[in-house]
Design a protein that fits this description.
Layout: H1 2-7, H2 11-35, H3 58-61, H4 69-86, H5 93-123, H6 129-132, E1 137-142, E2 152-158, E3 161-168, E4 179-187, E5 190-195
Parallel strand pairs: 3-5
Antiparallel strand pairs: 1-2, 1-4, 2-3, 4-5
């Protein structure tokens, strides 16, 4: 039955269904990994500068953050399902793809806002960052420019919980996924970190 249905689709619809089903599967996997405390995004970030070391939520949260694997999946999730569900109702392919793209962008924005809101709720009033963060280990979530030439992002474990903060470093650029250690708290949202490997002789 499925083979018959698939064989009856034209090439464009096969591509759309392929995109939609792939994005849906990855979305489910990402959601499961998020709930169990894993990170499905840090190894798949795409930087918007010349280093290609990763970028995440900073375009919306204060830097260079739209281009992540998670947002890529969310966009095609919204785009794909909109396109396959409306392809019989919207005759013009151009209009269909435009509407689908707008839905994809809206989904990305909604998910980014949700994560930002949840992070704010999680961080507000629950931790004395100045007392708890220094000495904690984590990893670079967004490439951190060297010599404080800009901010990146880190995920660190504080009191058994993984939290995300802006980060700067006095050393060389720290790439996405690199283990780091907090050496100073700059403010309530920004940490000074060093590459954890630098402590190993």
């Amino acid at each position: 039955m499925i083979a018959t249905w698939w064989a009856g689709l034209d090439t464009a619809m096969k591509i759309l269904w392929g995109i939609t089903l792939t994005a849906s599967l990855i979305f489910v996997i990402q959601s499961i990994m998020t709930f169990i405390g894993a990170d499905a995004d840090s190894d798949f970030s795409i930087d918007v500068d010349s280093s290609a070391d990763g970028a995440d939520l900073s375009n919306i949260e204060g830097g260079s953050s739209l281009y992540t694997f998670r947002n890529f999946v969310n966009f095609f999730l919204g785009f794909g399902w909109t396109a396959v569900l409306l392809h019989e109702k919207i005759a013009s392919p151009l209009v269909l793809y435009l509407v689908a793209a707008l839905v994809g962008v809206a989904l990305v924005a909604a998910v980014m806002y949700l994560f930002k809101w949840l992070a704010g709720m999680q961080q507000s009033g629950t931790i004395d960052l100045y007392k708890s963060a220094v000495g904690c280990n984590g990893s670079a979530y967004l490439s951190i420019p060297g010599e404080r030439h800009g901010e990146g992002k880190v995920q660190i474990t504080i009191n058994g919980a993984v939290r995300e903060y802006n980060a700067v470093t006095d050393g060389d650029t720290i790439k996405t996924g690199t283990p780091v250690k907090v050496v100073e708290v700059i403010d309530n949202q920004t940490l000074l970190v060093e590459e954890l490997n630098s402590y190993i002789v």
